[in-house]
Structures are given as structure tokens and as C-alpha cells.
Amino acid sequence: MRPVPPVLAAAPAVHIRVRLFARYREAAGRERIELELPEGETVESAWSAVTERLPELARYRPYTLFAVGHEYVPPTHRLRPDDELSLFPPVSGGAGGDTYRVVAAPLSPDAIASAVDDPGAGGIVIFSGVVRNETEGRSVKFLEYEAHAPMAEAKMREIGEGIRARWPGVRRVAMLHRVGRLEIGESSVLIAVSAAHRAEAFEACRHAIDTLKRTVPVWKKEHFEDGEVWVGLQSG
């Protein structure tokens, strides 16, 4: 007789309550979601489970803040049975509502426009840096981006604070840079600025991308049909 393989017990499940706020609640059409997750799963796993049910929320991942109970937590935070996980859009109110993130998820122009929307804004300008299919006559297959994320986010925030000091009419600023592998046509960086007047929005957005390219520690590697090369500090 053949030996019978042992039956492995399934990992115990934990019950998690998820609360949605503001535009997330409206987009989902509900305030609460109940989840059953394997024991030891993280906040990021819960987000994935939520967006499987509500794919319309997936585009907001780069802007989402997480809290368990009354404390903010990172995506790597491990959930416990009966935790209440809250999903927040960027909070409103002045510079505290600005967004500066390095992310692995795809970037959405619609979502970043929502992040800088403000009733006092007369214009919103968005810059999207897109992966092109050639560089100096060489055919590009894909790009890889790498960053020192904490420093990159701090430098982006510094750029945003400089924008607010230079252009007082600016209402909101959002700067996102993606890392990892990016295919042709995908956005590597998104910058959005809302301002009382369009001239300020245009000038501030251009200043943001020009300064980011010079100062933010993000590097890219270009993969060609005939080789690959690291370009260096935020070129392209």
C-alpha cells in the first residue's frame, strides 16, 4: 500500500472589521466590510482582500493611510483577531493634506487629481512621467526604478514646502514616484498641484518635477534589446 500523506490543518482564520471613510466609503457604497484572513496576515493583505471585493478602490493605494484602533500603522503591521482596520484617504487641511510617497503600485492620474482637489482651487495641473520605448535610438524593453524611500519622501516633502512658500496660492501638492519594474507606457512619476490660479499651478508643478529630477534619490535602470544600464540619479 502507498503511504497516505498527512493531512495538513488549515491555518486558523482571524476576523477583521474594516471601516471606510470619506471618498472611499462613497466609492464602495458601504462603510464597513467584514474579512476572514489567515492568522498572521498584514494590513497589506487586508487591503488586497478589500480591493478584490471592491476593485474601484485599488487605484487609491498610493494615497491610503491605515489605522488599527486609534493609531496609524504601516502596511506591514500584523493584524490580530477582531482588529478594526480603518482605511483613510489623505486627510484634509492645508499642508497636512499633501501627499509624498514612493510606491510599488501603478499610478492613477484620476486618483492624484482627487488627492489635490480643493474648493479653493481654480486649477489643477498634473505631470505624468511615462516610460517611453526608446532612448537615443536604442529600443527599450522596460525600466527598473530603485529608491531610498524614506529619504526620497522627505526630499519630496521639502520640495512641496518650498512650493508653498514660493506660491502662496497653492492649495494642495501630491508627488508620487513608483519603484520596481515598469513597462512601456506606465507612469513612473506623478505630480499634481492645485492652486487658486492656473499660472501658479503650472509654475509650481514644473518646479516640482525639475527639482525632483535633480535632488530626489531615485535611480533607474534601462533594459534594452541589446543590454542594460543604470542611468543614475533621477535622469529621464
SSE order and pairing:
Layout: E1 13-20, H1 22-28, E2 32-38, H2 43-53, E3 65-68, E4 71-72, E5 84-88, E6 99-103, H3 109-116, E7 123-130, E8 134-135, E9 138-147, H4 149-166, E10 170-178, E11 180-183, E12 187-195, H5 198-215, E13 218-224, E14 227-233
Parallel strand pairs: 1-5, 6-10
Antiparallel strand pairs: 1-2, 3-4, 3-5, 7-12, 8-9, 9-11, 9-13, 10-12, 13-14
Helix pairs in contact: 4-5
Describe the structure.
This protein has 236 residues and is an alpha+beta fold. It folds into two domains: 13-88, Roll (Ubiquitin-like (UB roll)), CATH 3.10.20.30; 94-233, Molybdopterin biosynthesis MoaE subunit (Aldehyde Oxidoreductase, domain 3). Helices cover 26% and strands 37% of the residues. The protein is built from five helices and 14 strands. A five-stranded mixed sheet has the order 2-1-5-3-4. Strands 8, 9, 11, 13 and 14 form a five-stranded antiparallel sheet that branches. Helix 4 (149-166) packs antiparallel against helix 5 (198-215). The chain starts with 12 loop residues before the first strand and ends with a strand. The mean pLDDT is 88.
